Amino acid sequence: MNYATDIRAAWLFPSLRKGNYWQPIFRDFSQRFETIVYAGLWSGFTPGLEDTFAVEVVGNTQFGQDYSARVANASLKIVLPLWKFRPQIIFTSGFSIWTILALGLKPVAGWRVAILYDGSSPSIDFRNSWARLLLRRLLARMADGFCANSGAAKDYLIDVLHAPPAKVFGSTYLVPDVTALVPTHQIAAPAVTGAGTDAQQSVTFLFVGELIPRKGLRQLLQACALLDRSSQHHYRLLVVGDGSERAELAQLATAENLDDVVTWIGWVPYEQLGTYFQSADALIFPTLEDVWGMVVLEAMAFGQPVLCSKWAGAAELIVPGENGELFDPHHPAALAALMTRVLQQPQLLATMGANARRMTAQYTPAVAVDNFQMVVDRVLASPPALA
To answer: What is the pTM of this model?
Structure first.
């Protein structure tokens, strides 16, 4: 690899098991700086990105269920490989054990530490835990910089953790790369099957995510059950994903007479998700809580409008009526009303989908890496933070 500078950078992620969307960023970043990505959980390279950056798996991170309040049990063995590599700057994910170690060793190792914070949500922020907040505020004083993926993340870092505003760099870095989601030769302009004027034409809604309570598929199915089944507006729902609620949700769909509407696709490899983005007309993201929601940007990059839960971090990118709509998944009737509107006016999908594709043009790995390089430059040019 050709490095533009002699700067060494380390990335610390206790888990990259579901982090395929990071790989195009690591690839591009590694072309500018000597880079090693350290991971406690690693599920392998996305096809097409093999060996485009260096990865070292350290230990085996143990997590609680979903957005658990338990601290991730990441291996303390991270210290030795970091000490051998001696990076000038470390990007570390959130406030994990690895972040604590990187900050604690900073005075003797001489590296700088920038904390990545993807987004804000009740289960992640621990606003009601004085012990967690006290620890995070201390760590925030020790950090040399912060990368806030969303406006909510930036507000949390500054207003709640009292991070110095000048050290908080707010720029979306969880961004899509369509070439990683579908083979290049298969990328095409999405066919919006519901964009015609024929009310008989079917509209395909898409759900992508784990089948767990937090993702809100139960509420989406309840909304589907509320639609006027006697109407002349036809639709189907593709469910891509798997999880602990699969059997229970399938039973709910049967009980609500939705078997002719819902198609259960199951788990799909990351590099094949683009096929479903291309074949659907609109994504529905009914999450009850998400710090971000990569699937929102991925769908938009393929020209899909998004019906998005107001409790998703990525909801800040939705302009109602322009590239999608917002709703509260705790009220399935509201979602049913939005779906009905789309079914009655399917021509809205083409307009909102085109807007969605245009709006995501600024959210690319290349732009994200430009911003990370700016963080490197500014952090290394500033005096180290002291607790």
So the answer is: 0.92
